[in-house]
Structure formats: structure tokens, C-alpha cells
Amino acid sequence: MTTAAGKLRNELCLSKAGYGLMGLTWRDVPTPPDTAFQCMRTAISCCKQGKILFNCGEFYGRDFLNLHYVRDFFREHPGREQIILSVKGGVDNTTLKPLGDPSSVRKSMDNCLREVGGYIDIFECARFDPNAVAPGALYPRTSIEAIVEYVNAGKIGAIGLSEVTAEQVRAIARDYGEYLACVEVEFSMLTRDILHNDLAQTCSELGIPIVCYSPLARGLLTNGISTPDDVPAGDFRRLLARFGPEALAQNLQAATFLQEHILKPRVPPPPLPAVALAWIRSWNDTYKGTHFLPIPGATTPQRVEEALSSCELAAAELDLINAFLAHFTPVGGRDEFLR
């Protein structure tokens, strides 16, 4: 594949991790700009192998604040060419309901291009709009065609697919494969659906990278959360059942297991987030045609460095983790805020 999308696929496959910017601004009190910029700089310095993916969104905070942080960072820091910028949109910024009709998708892309101040490498509709899917179709073709228009116009580099099924990926790859750069889905030790619903296998067969958002289970694999009160006011995680009082104790068992059986035996012990990301990358050995790219989000430079620090897991350690996960079931949903 020699298109811009093909080039982006290759660049994503050369990266070990990216950086998710949602948490910087989608909260009552956004991370101060100076701290946010330090986080971005730290992420870049930790990911020197190839380019780094910055993952942001039109609706990640009030008044396009997430996009403005990226815009202002690019203005003050050289090296834009080393960053792959992926932007989500295509939803009502207040209700978060998908808006997949062509005019709404175009409006979203125009908003993102204007507010981020320039070219976008990858644009994704955060969720497909079921009302935009024609009878008998698997996906909203008119939503995809709207993005294709902007790719052909040179405003956007390629299409990303967010939270899609294996069937949808196959259909879109068949119809618009030359425009498709990646598939983005939630993947962590607590959310392993793609290993069982044919999505990972499909992406491997088609050679499409998998961008893994929430690889730290939205903080449950960081040692940063032990009670519901540890989630900041206004943070969307307060809407999730996984962070409720009853569910949290069960869901934290994964972190406890890793502490006891993976971290403690090592001297010095690696950071827990780095272990979580190493587990994700280990699936590259099983699904050799794709590339699992975790994009942790953190709101302090120290947390960014912990997540992106180098860590590899031995085969025996992976066996221990996977044996535990085979009998571990998290409690609560993961995306109630988008329903």
C-alpha cells in the first residue's frame, strides 16, 4: 500500500506506544497547560523509536480545549513531523450522541482542523451513528465517504475506525482499504474482548494496526485509585459502574495480583503501568499481522514516564498473568457515558 494511509500504518507499526490526551481536559478542573505540555514532552522523550501517536478529541473538554492544548503545544515546540495526530469527532459535543450524517461529519472535521490549527493525520468518528447506516448495510458509508473527501482534498491523512466490529472492519477494508490507517478499541487486562470477538484476528489478517486506548484500565492498573473518591470530581469515570464502591474492590484484584506475582519478585520492581503495557505488546507475538499500540493517558510527567518506561515480560510471567486473567472477571460496564 503506497497511500498516505499505508505510510501511517507502517509508522504506527514502528512505535511501541503513543499518548492519550483525553484526561488532560475532560474533567472539571483541566490539567494546567504548562503541566500538560510537560506531559507531552515527556511522552515524546520516552518514545524515541519512530513517531509517536497523539490521540485527542473534539469533545474532550469544553470549547475544544483538548484541541487547543495540542495547537498551543505545536506552536511552542518544534518537531510536529515526529507526531502522528489522531482526532476523534463525529458526535454531539454536549450529549455525546453520534452524528454520522455527512454534513455533521464534515462540520466536525472542519471544527477539528480549525481548532487544532492545521493538518490532522487520522480522523475517526468516535462511534458510528446507527441512524446513518442504510438498511442492510454494516456501516455508515456516507460517514466514511465524508472523511474520504477530506483525505482526497489533502486536509486529513487517513481514516481511523473507533469501536467497530470485525465484520465492519472487513467491509470497510474491502470498500475503502486504501484510506484506512488503524482501528482503535479499548484493550487492557480488564477489557479483553478483541481477543475473543475476532477483531484482533481480523486486523492481523488485514495488516491493520490496533490502537489500544485505556490500556491501564482507566487507572485501575496504576496504583492511583483505591477508592471511588480517588477519581477527580467531574471526571467521566465517575459515571462508570466499574468505579462504584461494590465493583472497585473486585476490579482492583488484577493490580494486586500483578504487585504480588510480577513486581515484587523483580529487583528493582518495574512500574505497574509499564507491566500493563508490556502485556499488551506481548500479543504482537500471537497476532503477527497487526501491531498493538497502547496509548496510555496520564496527567503528570511522572505518571507518563512510569507508563512509558521500558519493560518486557518473560514467558513465565506472561503465563502467570494469563492464567490469572482466565479466571478473573471485571465488574461493571466501561462506556456507559457514551450510551
Offer a concise description of the structure.
The chain is α/β, with parallel strands linked by helices and 339 residues long.
Task: Produce the secondary structure layout.
Layout: H1 4-13, E1 19-20, H2 22-25, H3 33-46, E2 52-57, H4 65-76, E3 83-89, H5 102-116, E4 120-125, H6 141-152, E5 156-162, H7 166-176, E6 180-186, H8 199-206, E7 210-213, H9 245-251, H10 253-263, H11 272-282, E8 292-295, H12 301-308, H13 315-325
Parallel strand pairs: 1-2, 2-3, 3-4, 4-5, 5-6, 6-7, 7-8
Helix pairs in contact: 3-12, 5-6, 7-8, 10-13
The CATH first-level class comes to Alpha Beta
Tally the structural domains. 1
- In spatial order, strands of the major sheet run 1-2-3-4-5-6-7-8
Which descriptor suits the 3D outline? globular
Cα-atom radius of gyration: 19 Å
Please provide the ordered H/E string of secondary-structure elements.
Answer: HEHHEHEHEHEHEHEHHHEHH
Descriptive overview:
By secondary structure, the chain is an alpha/beta fold. The chain has a single domain (4-218, 273-310), classed as NADP-dependent oxidoreductase domain (TIM Barrel), CATH 3.20.20. Helices cover 40% and strands 13% of the residues. It contains 13 helices and eight strands. The protein has an eight-stranded parallel beta sheet. Strand 2, helix 4 (65-76) and strand 3 (83-89) form a beta-alpha-beta unit. The relative contact order is 0.14. The mean pLDDT is 94.
